[in-house]
Specification:
Layout lengths: L2 H8 L12 H20 L8 H7 L4 H14 L7 H9 L5 E6 L5 H6 L7 H8 L1 E5 L7 H14 L5 E5 L2 E2 L8 E2 L4 E2 H9 L4 E5 L1 H5 L12 E2 L10 E4 L6 H14 L12 H4 L10 H5 L10 H4 L18 H4 L49 H5 L4 H24 L6
Parallel strand pairs: 1-2, 1-3, 3-7, 7-9
Antiparallel strand pairs: 4-8, 5-6
Helix pairs in contact: 4-5
Length: 412
Amino acid sequence: MNREHLRGLFSAKSARVNTNKGEEYYNSLYERCKARLEELKKLKPVNNVNIMEVLEDEGINRRDFLKWASAMTATLMLPASFTPLVAEAAEVMNRVPVIWIELQDCAGNSEALLRSDGPKVDEIILDIISLEFHETLMAAAGHQAEEQLEDAMHHFKGKYLLFVEGAIPLANGGVYGTIGASGETFEEHLHRVAKDAAAVVAVGTCATFGGVPAAAPNPTGAVGVMDIVKGKPIVNIPACPANPANMVGVILHYVLTGQIPELDSLLRPKFAFGYRIHDNCERRAHFDAGEFVEEWGDEGAKNNFCLYKVGCKGPMTFNNCSIIRYNEAVNWPIGAGHGCIGCSEPDFWDKYAYERPMADANIKAPTGGVEKTVDEFGLGLLTAAAVGIGIHAAFSAVAGKKEECEIEEGDR
C-alpha cells in the first residue's frame, strides 16, 4: 500500500458531509425558516424572559450576540446569509417548551449546563429556553415535582421537546431504576413522557448508547433511548458529557425549521458528528509526519506530538469537540495532552477507554477498510479501520524518517 493509496482512502468522498446543497435548496430553506419564525412570533412566549436583557445582565452586548449567531450558523452548516435568522430563532426559543428527565447516570450532562462564571451565549440561552421540567435543577420535589411534570405534559401535549439524560435499566423488570412513590420504572417513565413529545433528544452517551452503565458485565441491563422509544423522531447527542453547543444547535434547528436536523444512521446530527476528531485535530500534522508520543512524559509528549500510539481514538471517533472545544473554547482533552477515549461512539466504555492503539487492542476485527462513512463506522467495532490506521501510522513513521532525504514532490 503506497502513500497515494492511503491518502485516497483518508480523503474518500464517502467520508464527507455535504455542506453545499446548492442555491435553490438554500433559497427554499431560507423562505421556510422565515415563515416558521413569523408563526412562532405570533405565539405567546411560554416564559417572559427577554434574551437581550439576560445577555446584557451577563455583560454580553448585541455585537457579541451576533458574533455568536454567526458562529452557530457555521456550526449548523448553513450559509452566512442565515445569520440574522439564527439570531431571530434564539430570540423566540422561549416559544418551544422543553421537558428534561434524568435516568441512570451521573448527571454530568446537567452539570455541563451549569456554570460558575464566564458563561458563553450557548449556556445563557439554555438558561432562558422554556425548560418546563428538570427534576435535578428545579426547586420542586416529590409529589410537587410529579404534578409539575403532569401539568407540562398536558399543557404542551404534542409540542414539547423531551430531553433524556441517562440510560434505561431493563434487567429484572427494571427494578434498578424507579421513580416516584408509585415505583414506576425508568422504562415505564420514559414511555409515558415520550408518548406526547414532538421529538426525543437523548443527551450524553448513557442516554444514546448505554454509556458507562452498559459497560461489561452490564448488571442492570442498561440500554439507550433508541432501544426503548419507537415511532418518534429521536436525536442522539452522545459524548461524556455532551457539549452544550450541540444541545443548543439541535434546539435552534428545530426552532428554525420545525424539524430535527439531518442525522446519521446512529441518529446523531451530522452538523456535529459528521467529521472525525482526527480530521480537525491540532496534532494531525504530527500523525502524518510519523511523529508520535511513545510513552507519557517522553520528548514526543513535550513537543505535542500525535497521541495515537498512547491510545488516542480520534481517528475513529465522530464529534466536533476538536472545533467547538470546552470551557469557553479554551481547550479540550487532546489539547490538554490526553488522547480521545471515543466517548461519543457506541460501546464506549468497553472498547475505547484504554491507553493503547486500537490496532493493539486484540479485538476481533469486523469487515471494512480504513476509510468508511460515518454511518458504516458507527455500526460495529472499528478494529479494521484501526488496523489500517495503525498501518498508516507505521507507514507515516517510516515515511517521516525518510522525508529528509527523499521526499517526492507528489507526496507533499
